[in-house]
Design brief:
With 263 residues, the protein is mainly beta. Helices cover 0% and strands 41% of the residues. It is built from no helices and 17 strands. Strands 3, 4, 5, 8, 10, 11, 12 and 14 form an eight-stranded antiparallel sheet that branches. Strands 2, 6, 7, 9, 13 and 15 form a six-stranded antiparallel sheet that branches. A hairpin with a 4-residue loop joins strand 4 and strand 5. The chain starts with 6 loop residues before the first strand and ends with a strand.
Length: 263
């Protein structure tokens, strides 16, 4: 990320009133949060591919296996809606809690939007609907030159004819919930949190690494929900103010001046 300069901040803090300085800081831009409950909004989502299977068990799945939204996210070989009748699911357990369900194929994957400002914390929830599933979480921070067959030191928002994303593994995630898949109650889903704090442009990918034997395409889904990708935190340095420092210690119920800069 390019550094646009240091912003100096002068803040007066009452030591006895720290509790009054807190406010919500979890608001994310639409390209950094995917909750999946807006699948039916055609101004946001485009759905293509195979129709959902017939039968009452598939009633709450949506048609299509390729899903893209206007904020840059894309899902391939995934069902939308909810896999509520296909074993385990991420709570709350109801037909309105939509999720992305990776089909039983190693072609199943999802791509994030392009994060020009970098990546702070990666958060999502996941569960295997029936048998254990391994999912790879990958990051691209530069491109691979297909013609010269070598890495580059640049990263683009999209691939070109000669440059593809150079994917590197962050971690392989083993989904192996132990709750009964036939149980109608809440299940022991995985809540994944990774404080990556990468300060340069990047893109994320998740892809399925294995297939359950004896099942077809629309079986043994790997469900993903509540994706949140925060920006990296600002770098803050707090220094003692210039000149004489008042008050001295102890300084209960007295004001002091803090000088800091934000990169």
């Amino acid at each position: 990320m390019k550094w646009f300069g240091k912003v100096f901040v002068m803040t007066a803090v009452a030591l006895a009133c720290f509790y009054g300085l807190a406010w919500p800081t979890d608001t994310l831009t639409p390209d950094r949060i995917v909750l999946f409950d807006d699948y039916d909004d055609t101004t946001v989502w485009t759905h293509e591919g195979l129709a959902r299977p017939t039968g009452i068990v598939n009633k709450w799945l949506r048609d299509g296996t390729i899903h893209t939204n206007v904020f840059g996210w894309s899902f391939y070989d995934c069902r939308t809606g909810t896999p509520i009748n296909h074993g385990r699911e991420i709570p709350p357990v109801n037909v309105y809690n939509c999720q992305a369900a990776m089909a039983n194929t190693t072609n199943a994957c999802l791509y994030s939007s392009f994060f020009a400002d970098g990546i702070g914390t990666i958060y999502f929830e996941a569960i295997n609907c029936i048998a254990p599933v391994t999912v790879a979480l990958e990051i691209a921070t530069n491109m691979f030159d297909i013609i010269k067959y070598c890495q580059t030191n640049i990263i683009l928002a999209a691939e070109t004819e000669s440059l593809s994303f150079d994917w590197q593994t962050v971690t392989n995630i083993y989904l192996n919930a132990q709750s009964l898949s036939s149980d109608a109650g809440s299940h022991d889903f995985l809540r994944y949190v990774n404080r990556l704090n990468y300060y340069s442009p990047a893109k994320l990918r998740m892809r399925r690494l294995d297939v359950a034997d004896g099942g077809g395409y629309d079986s043994n889904y790997a469900a993903i929900d509540n994706i949140r990708i925060s920006p990296p935190p600002a770098g803050v340095v707090v220094r003692q103010a210039e000149g004489v420092f008042h008050p001295g210690h102890p300084s209960v119920n007295a004001n002091l001046m803090i000088r800091c800069y934000v990169d």
